[in-house]
Design goal:
The protein is an alpha+beta fold. The protein is built from 17 helices and 35 strands. The strands form eleven sheets. Strands 16-11-14-15-10-9-17 form a seven-stranded antiparallel sheet, with helices on one face. Strands 2-1-7-8 form a four-stranded parallel sheet. The chain has a four-stranded antiparallel sheet with strand order 20-21-22-23. Strand 24 and strand 25 (636-638) form a beta hairpin.
Length: 757
């Protein structure tokens, strides 16, 4: 049903205006800014989508158009009915779903429904606001407009593209690899990036190098230098022998300071957050997963109660944006705050203005609605994670409007014969923007050498200690959530509203997994990626996906036609699918270099029932299978099977010893006489079967475990769920079963008792 909050006044007959928002969480926050003539309702997200069980996309050959079929989402008919009922009695309807493409199509869908009961279409308006404040809302109402059909068309294009890939490519993966797989137009490219990085790691060959440090004493202070040049050339010391030779050469020279360079260095303020940089910093500084960050940001945007529990207050601007723009009002407020709280010298000589190439710029950057609401004023009233994220956003915004930090940098060159040594030191002399916010990468200044005050050109120095240190180049690191988003954004893949979904989807599909918080492609992910890249290279590649994102932006801006972009994509997709069909290849087989230990034929990686394993290519003549692992270089290693463990128990059927085994569904106990005797010990339920009096045993299948009568199929008692040791009040069966679908009911299949709520 449509949601109403305090202040929505759904029963006020004097109301003549209706505002329809996307999220019910906004209702209370918005209601406090409007008078009694307004009602507020919520669509609770999308109300319509393409049908779940069929494509929903058709071609009209007569006018070369693409037709979309929309169906009402489950549970949303009551929402639509309620909103339309309210709209029918209003003089004006304002559609205020989120200010992005998803919000625009939600507005379009609800407008279509309202139009069925409101004959005068001039009453229906689209409004948007970047922040939930009284001025922003009133300004939005004042600047009412028509629905942006460019944004609607762009969202439709994205949805159709993703639908085509899902419906056309996913069944192909089922046939070629294993059942249950799915492909995603953008998500598959994210998997491609993780697979490419994994390949780089496997192919990486570390290179050895050595550094030389020389320690001098100047008065009571020390100066640590590094070998900079030999005969005016930067040396490449690759072995310990070369390092020892350099040390020997240094020991024979007399040194003096030949040059001191002093200069100021500025570190400019970082821009305010946009979606991707907020996700990255929240991950790096706060340890928040991207999904968690967006959930918290949504709450800060919609409003949280502060001193007055009944009145939520919106704290930040819209959190899905790729813009760095800041409103003039916010700039003025930031200037006043910086000068009054830090001092005039902390405000730059010219206002800091930021821009990002290619940004849609429909919204502002992510910033606090009021810089005067400091983190200290928020922290006592919200949960700790909300407080941390708000503080991060607040500090970054304030810092973005501050003067650069200033460092005093000194570089010292020390010469002796053919040897040149160097020392560099930096001292922070003015905090500037760092007083409010320091980025992770700014820690390099803390690692620089301290330069003695008594240093001067011409001073002769004698080495006190010379040391060598071995180094090896490191392979590229696997992606974290933060670095993968950074890479996607750099390559133009995905948009602010999709980053979180991309990361969650590739994990849920089992294509990547997290190892020490870093993404590693699974065997399944690499197999699917290889198949897509080899057979559908026109669609699943980085440059094509980035270009398609640009085309979607152009559709939104009216620079390209929706159907033209879709036809071009479908043409490429069909060409690749046709070529693959003509090749008529069977199941994708990933051959390895390993020989089968039973018949010496090659082993291949296979997939089935949610797991991967090695199987002999001689199947069915040879049925050898084995689990496996990969080392850091990607080499496959067979996992030895655990030998069955004999237990002190006899088989009740044939008296052979019982043994503990491990199967594909986990550990179990069975007769050692298999296959002659197929007895498997079952865990027995403490109560007899309520229908036939037999025993009930725990049974296992591909979806888990359940309890079932051992006299099956003559007795069909079977159940999962929580057992309640309460007799049935109707038939006196010894216990009841509680499941999410049925609730509390009798275990006896012949009894109809179900507990009332």
């Amino acid at each position: 049903m449509a949601s109403h909050g305090k202040g929505s006044r759904p029963n006020d007959t004097s109301s003549s205006k209706l505002i329809v928002v996307e999220s019910p969480g906004k209702i209370k926050t918005i209601a406090k800014f409007l008078d009694k003539s307004f009602r507020i309702a919520s669509t609770v997200g999308h109300i319509k989508d393409l049908p779940e069980k069929k494509l929903g996309v058709a071609f009209n050959d007569k006018n070369n158009a693409i037709l979309l079929e929309y169906t009402t989402l489950d549970g949303k008919q009551s929402v639509i009915t309620d909103i339309c009922k309210q709209a029918a009695g209003c003089d004006e309807i304002f559609l205020a779903s989120d200010p992005d493409r998803e919000g625009e199509i939600i507005a379009w869908h609800i407008a279509e429904e309202i139009s069925k009961v409101v004959k005068d279409k001039e009453k229906i308006h689209r409004i948007s606001f970047n922040e939930i404040t009284k001025p922003a809302i009133l300004e939005g109402i004042k600047n009412k407009r028509q629905i942006d059909m460019g944004k609607v068309a762009s969202q439709q294009a994205r949805r159709v593209l993703d639908r085509w890939v899902g419906y056309e490519v996913s069944p192909l993966l089922w046939r070629k690899i294993t059942k249950g797989l799915s492909a995603g137009r953008v998500q598959s490219v994210a998997v491609l990036l993780t697979c490419n990085r994994e390949q780089e790691i496997r192919e990486f060959k570390p290179e050895e190098s050595w550094s030389i440090n020389v320690l001098f004493t100047i008065g009571k202070e020390s100066l640590l230098t590094e070998l900079y040049k030999i005969k005016q050339k930067i040396p490449k010391i690759k072995t310990e022998q070369e390092a020892l030779a350099a040390i020997e050469k240094i020991s024979k020279e007399r040194f003096s300071v030949t040059n001191i360079t002093e200069k100021d260095r500025l570190r400019n303020a970082l821009p305010p957050f946009m979606t991707s940089t907020l996700q990255q910093d929240a991950y790096n500084k706060l340890g928040f997963a991207v999904e968690r960050t967006m959930s918290l940001a949504q709450k800060l945007y919609e409003g949280v109660p502060l001193s007055d529990p009944s009145t939520p207050e919106a704290l930040i601007t819209y959190m899905r944006t790729d813009s760095l723009r800041i409103s003039d009002t916010a700039l003025d407020d930031a200037k006043e705050f910086v000068i009054s709280h830090y001092g005039k010298e902390f405000y730059p000589s010219k206002t800091n203005i930021y821009a990002k190439a290619g940004a849609q710029d429909a919204h502002e950057a992510i910033r606090p609605i009021s810089v005067k609401i400091s983190p200290d004023k928020v922290t006592p009233y919200v949960d700790p994670d909300l407080a941390k994220l708000y503080k991060l956003i607040w500090q970054r915004f304030v810092s973005s409007q501050m003067a650069p930090a200033k460092y005093f940098q000194r570089q010292v060159l020390i010469d002796g014969g053919d040897i040149t040594l160097k020392a560099t030191g930096s001292t922070l002399v003015f905090e500037g923007c760092l007083a409010a916010y320091a980025a992770e990468e700014e820690s390099e200044e803390e690692q620089t050498t301290k330069i003695p005050k008594a240093i001067a050109v011409g001073i002769e120095l004698t080495p006190k200690e010379t040391t060598k240190k071995q180094h090896f180049t490191q392979p590229p690191a696997r992606y974290t959530e933060a670095t993968l988003i950074k890479e996607l954004e750099k390559r133009g893949i995905g948009r602010p509203s999709t980053f979180s979904t991309i990361l969650s989807t590739i994990q849920k599909r089992g294509y990547v997994k997290k190892v020490t918080k870093r993404f590693q492609p699974t065997e399944l992910g690499e197999t699917v990626n290889t198949f897509l890249v080899q057979n559908l290279a026109d669609i699943f590649n980085v440059s094509f996906t980035a270009t398609m994102e640009e085309d979607l932006d152009k559709i939104a801006n009216g620079e390209m036609q929706r159907d033209a972009v879709l036809f071009e994509f479908y043409k490429k997709l069909k060409q690749d699918l046709t070529a693959l069909g003509e090749a008529n290849t069977g199941k994708t087989t990933i051959l390895t270099e390993l020989d089968c230990p039973q018949c010496q034929k090659k082993l291949a990686i296979r997939f089935g029932k949610g797991q991967q394993f090695l199987g002999c290519t001689g199947f069915p003549e040879c049925s050898f299978t084995s689990r496996f692992t990969r080392d850091d270089q990607g080499n496959i290693q067979l996992q030895e099977r655990e030998a069955p463990q004999t237990i002190d128990e006899k088989c009740p059927k044939c008296s052979s010893p019982m043994i503990a085994r491990v199967g594909r569904f986990g550990p179990f106990i069975a007769c050692s006489g298999y296959p002659g005797c197929k007895y498997i010990k079952q865990e027995e339920f403490p109560h007899p079967c309520p229908t036939c009096g037999g025993t009930i045993g725990k049974k296992t299948w591909k979806k888990g475990t359940f309890w079932g009568c051992n006299k099956h199929p003559d007795c069909t008692v079977a159940f999962t769920g929580e057992v309640h040791e309460t007799p049935c009040p109707k038939c006196n069966a010894p216990f009841l079963i509680n499941t999410p679908k049925t609730g509390l009911k009798c275990v006896n299949t012949k009894c109809t008792y179900v507990a009332k709520e």
